[in-house]
Amino acid sequence: MPRTDSLIQAAHQDVLRWEEEYFPVLMENHRKVAAAFSRHRVSQDCFAGSSGYGYGDHGRDTLDAVYAEVFRAEDALVRVHFASGTHVLMLVLDALLPPGSHLVSLTGAPYDTLTNALGLRGAGPGTGTDRGRQSFCGERGVRYTQIELSPDGGGVEEQIPPDATVVFIQRSRGYEFRPSLSVGEIGALCRAASRRAPGAVRMVDNCYGEFTQAEEPLEEGADLIAGSLIKNPGGGLAPAGGYVAGKRHLVERIAERLTAPGIGRHVGATGGDWMRLLYQGLYLAPRTVSEMLKGRVFAASLLGALGYEVSPRPDESGRDTVLAIRFGSARSLEVFVESIQGASPVDSHVLARPWEMPGYDDPVIMAAGTFVSGATSELSADAPVRPPYTAYLQGGLSFPYTRIALEQAVLRLLETP
Ligand SMILES: *Cc1c(COP(=O)(O)O)cnc(C)c1O
Coil, strand, or helix at residue 245? Predict the structure, then answer.
């Protein structure tokens, strides 16, 4: 296979070039984490965990302080009690949007699961999860305005309503074929929002964005960020959870939503052995994110060379850990996702097949052979099976494994008529 050999070599060269450029970011993120661990005196007793109410859990409180410092926040709340990224984002909105308030998205439609949770999409009767679903915005009387991202970022400011309560910015592409936002672009949106709607809370869905740059959104004028621990900041080790970081009075409000008013952050048992994984995961996260990004550059280069449209291209500075690939045919898409599953450390023998997922209009095919169930910090791919047959590839804790998976996928794609 001389043809694939030379494509693989070329893709690897792209990775080496990228790695050199990225090295200052990698160093800066490691410096931030190292300084935070040292300043907050992380010690063995932080890993002990707690039971029952979890009062006085020193490890839990210290981890909050470490996250706050890494993300340049006044305060942070890092909890395994956040069931998912959607849960933490939804709790934030629930805490910040009283009846009659106004939610304004500056980056088009929010991520699928959040759009559903907010009740922004027809919640018709049907599948099990739809039945009995509440519409958050409808029931609470929260108005919703959606501003579309324009390619040059122009025209957004004039559209921001002055009575906005929360302006919502999604950093990652999520599952759209659009570029992710840089922290600089998020800063520009935050400044526009503060000019037009000075009273609004500027909130960023930070999923898939952490550690892809040397700055984080709070440094550029966001008030609050939130994300999932089974994506970037958990370093592949965090077994579950989410975080929120930003202005102290806002973090306190979210803590009271997570538990109860008057109790807030002071309860929440952390179990027997999960705390060490949260700490060690954050410690490794700058490194694992760089492994994910290397995998993304490699995949973009290799699949791009085979003629598939990819976003971001290897020479574009993608600001998240996701690669979108347009396969153009259902067969190629399925072959690709099947081979990613086949190269996974867990369930490599399981054949990924399209299935009717509750809440989706088209069948969805997923490769998720991960140690932590559903973790997209680990190499995974998923796609709704519909034209133009776009797959989203993300994660990968160690670049050589990602390269092996892609080498196998490309061979299978070339064998597919
Ligand atoms: C993954 C993701 C979410 C939701 O996180 P889950 O843990 O899957 O619920 C929200 N927004 C963005 C941009 C994401 O990538």
Answer: strand
